[in-house]
Amino acid sequence: MNITAQDVNKLRQQTGAGMMDCKKALTEAEGDFEKAIEFLRKKGQKVSASRADRETREGAVMAKSLGNQGIIIALNCETDFVAKNADFLHLGDQILTTAVSHLPTDVEALVKLSVAGKPISDLLIDYIGKIGEKIEISHYHILKADTVITYIHPGARLGVLVGFQGGEGSDLEAIGKDVAMQIAAMNPVAVDKDGVDPALIQKEIEIGKEQARAEGKAEEMLEKIALGKLNKFYKESTLLNQEFVKDSSKTIQQYLKEQNPQLTISGFIRVQLGVN
User: Fold this and answer.
1) Which H or E run contains 165?
2) For residue 124, what are the contacts with CB-CB under 8 A and spacing of at least 6?
3) How many domains does the chain have?
4) Parallel, antiparallel, or unpaired for β 136-144 and 247-251?
5) Lowest-pLDDT range, 38-52, 141-155, 172-186?
6) Of 118, 144, 170, which residue is a domain's last?
7) What Å distances lie between residue 210 and 12, 101, 202, 222, 267, CA to CA?
8) What's the CA dihedral at 101, 58, 76, 60 to 10 degrees?
9) Residue 76's closest CA among 13, 157, 185, 17?
């Protein structure tokens, strides 16, 4: 069967696949467009399977606030070149928009949702076939609070959601950006010491004891020394107790009180490419 340039271009417009791939698909399908599209999808699935063990440490983090809740996703790929590709970024934007509209519970639920009549899981496979790299959604989170502020660090490799309670009348956009940039830069483990995982606290105590023991401290002093080191850990690793990066003379808690004594941070989510 004669496959015309117009046929190839039509299939390319429908699928976004390369010209040679479209021509091959139409030839294999003997000109049947539905079979050709199926052929291209199978090609994508084959590429997906063959790249299943590849690392996807590049990509883009995207976020959106709806006022009282925020959504953040990370769409990953293998190379920085693809991460900057307009089609890849458009795909990420479509996924984020769909997530915002439906608020699925997790990534598994998200990829079952449809974009333009096609499940996101199939859309990812199509893009894998088109681009030739493994593409996956590595993160999807929702944060709820009175006010949720989003921040995407330049380069889109890192993003933050931070939730505030109270603070009516404050400039929460400016305050939120300051706090989100703090979270991006200093990577706290929790809002305050009460939010630190007990297992992490115990680990820090054991590390403190071992350090003191290695320094030759008396065995009966190890617990006290370890607790002192734990307080230092809280100061360095919990958001409210950290020094404010824009003004080291105050902590984040002091900064918030200066802005509005009624303003509190209820939670945050930090997503960084290449970090679980």
Assistant:
1) strand 158-165
2) 48, 91, 111, 135, 136, 137
3) 2
4) unpaired
5) 38-52
6) 144
7) 63, 51, 12, 8, 32
8) 0
9) 157
- In sequence order, the β-bridge partners of residue 72 are 63, 141
Token pair for 228? 């002192």
Contact criterion met (CB below 8 Å) for 147 and 68: yes
CATH of the domain at 26: 1.10.8.10
Q: Which helix (H) or strand (E) holds 147?
A: strand 147-152
Does some domain include residue 165? no
CB under 8 Å to 101, separation ≥6 — which residues? none
For residues 24 and 48, is the Cβ–Cβ distance under 8 A?
Answer: no
Q: Which residues make beta-bridge pairs with 61?
A: 74
What does the mean pLDDT of the chain come to?
A: 93
CA Rg, the chain, in Å? 25
Domain that holds residue 132: 55-144
28 CB neighbour count, 10 Å cutoff:
15
pLDDT in tens, 2-49: 889 999 988 887 777 778 888 999 999 999 998 998 888 888 878 788
